[in-house]
Queue: 3 jobs
Job 1
Amino acid sequence: MDSFLPEHVRAGLEAARKKDQRRRSRMRVEADGRSFRILRFQEDGFTLDIEDAPHLRGLVDLYDGPRHLSQCLIVASGEEVGEMRYEFKWSTRAGDRPALDFERPDDAPDGYLPDLR
């Protein structure tokens, strides 16, 4: 059906589709102090708008709104229709507390109450 539409109409439809994807997506990637909105996210990678995205490579941080999800090592894998695809070489979930340097027993108390004598 798109082959029967004039070029300027197809370009307008593509721009509207990208704008809608950007508006719906809360996920973003941060690299080198810059933030980019993720259009599509999969288990093995994500896509960014080709106009906004530089050829990212290396260590980046993934966010869902304000929440830090993971730190990833990425590589650009190719261009798709107006989008740049990036794949994960590895991804590590971001924790909300520091890692323990010892094993915590299952029956350990969650806290201590003060002595109120």
Job 2
Amino acid sequence: MAKAVLETSIPGLKKRKGKVRDIYDLGDHLLLVSTDRISAFDWVLPTPIPSKGQVLNQLSAFWFKLLGEPNHLVTINLDEMPLPEYTDREMLVGRTCYVRKTKVIPIECVVRGYISGSAWKEYQQRGTVCGIQLPPGLKESDELPEPIFTPATKAETGHDENITFEQMIEIVGEQIAVELRERSLRIYKRGAAYAKERGIIIADTKFEFGQENGQILLIDEVFTPDSSRFWPADSYTPGRGQPSFDKQFVRDWLESTGWDKNSPPPELPDDVVQKTREKYIEAFERLTGQKFPFS
């Protein structure tokens, strides 16, 4: 198995650390490095998933190109990045993108095509999702009559908080809110249709956007196992939870351990690490039609 990358360091560059990414500031550009860290239940787990960061980076680059949406990506080719002279390039291979810096719009643009997770819990209680009234009688994992846009506020730590579209307007203004809703729904429909042809249901996903010189760009990651709920189409059965290509496997194992989610999480066993890695790589290969290039 490939060696996992938990941390990166680039000489002379200041680093900001997210849950999964290390972010380096290069003035009007950024280097985003997807490490193999994995988070669950608002904790970064002590055990990495080898190759996970490369899957996220390569898959996002694939989608940016396929979708053709205005976005922040400049290159994923290390030879085209202005790296300092003594940079350890080996730790960056396959997991680094060079992007334009934008002013991030502080909204998670969530689109749901199926009812699952927190949306299913809310629907059971109130018949709504983020204030949107849904038809009665839906079962867990049912496909919705039409995809819905359910924004959330971005949280640096802890859970993102679901908000109504009206609350989103209060935060970013009506013009931007309407544009982000329309673009998010359009991108989701295109991506979901493409994925379904390749045997993957994208049950829900989230997008992020930023502004640069008056233009709104798609940023961060797109349709990855970290930002989306991927289900295998050949075993899809409404009325229950679905098997998944994302980190649900890790969440399920953590739930089985009795961990209280308030203290540091346990180390993942080797078989959970291996199976999770295999799921991420399978998602990449199904969606791109390419062999995963990093062993």
Job 3
Amino acid sequence: MKKFFAVVICAVMIVSATACTGSNKGDNVESSAEIVNSTVSNDESSQAESNKDDSKMFASIQNYLEYPNTKKSIETMKSTLSTTLYDFDCYADGDALIYEYKFTKQIPDDKLENVKNILDDTFEDMDSTLSDLMEELLEYVDIENPIISVKYVNNDGSVITEKSFDKSILEETISDVNSSDEKSV
């Protein structure tokens, strides 16, 4: 009986944490994107200005993440975004920048589908949030097609759900802005 209530409480916490914060997961991604963007924009733009010969500042996403100011920003993000519900990590995997949210407690199998559906809904709001980060990657990292991947991982390491964003999010963001402008006219 205690185990049943623990599972129910865990599921309610996940649903309420996601529901109460509305787009909190999207906000977390936005916060982390803003931190990384401001680090690159403020500290590297003067250095990038001196590299006018079309070479990019970073050869890879891993180099980008190893840059001291970026490392400091990511550590800040980790301490800010890690909660009792999940831990946050940001790392490179080839040409992909991975944002990973790992639940601190195992989500039971019978609750996974509901949790996955809730998390999948948060992906709809991420295009505009991650477009700024994609622009930064395209500007500063010498990769033709960078990927930003957002993963939600169960405590055992199994992926609950994930979505990858490529540079087409820049086009989607522009079309979203245009369609909202048309609606307001």
